[in-house]
Design a protein that fits this description.
By secondary structure, the chain is mostly beta strands. It has strands spanning about 1-10, 15-20, 25-30, 35, 40, 45-50, 55-60, 65-70. Helices cover about 0% and strands about 65% of the residues.
Length: about 70
């Protein structure tokens, strides 16, 4: 199973995204700059995420990203 979410964040916006046990996530930043659990990412960056109960997303500029939830 997999799901894809499109994220559009404005500067200063903070979002918490819950995860499901046993699932991994991949985030791909399309534009702007965000941090995921304190790790800074910018346009073109991608990151694999595992073993996190929740994702804390914070935008330092207007940002767009795709978040993949993978079972």
């Amino acid at each position: 199973d997999a799901s894809i979410s499109f994220l559009h964040l404005v500067p200063g916006e903070n979002v918490t995204h819950g995860t499901q046990p046993g699932h991994g996530q991949w985030i791909q930043v399309i534009s702007g700059e965000i941090s995921v659990n304190g790790v800074a990412l910018r346009a073109g960056d991608g990151a694999a995420i595992e073993h996190e109960e929740a994702l804390q997303l914070a935008a330092s500029s207007e940002a767009r990203a795709l978040l993949f939830d993978l079972a």
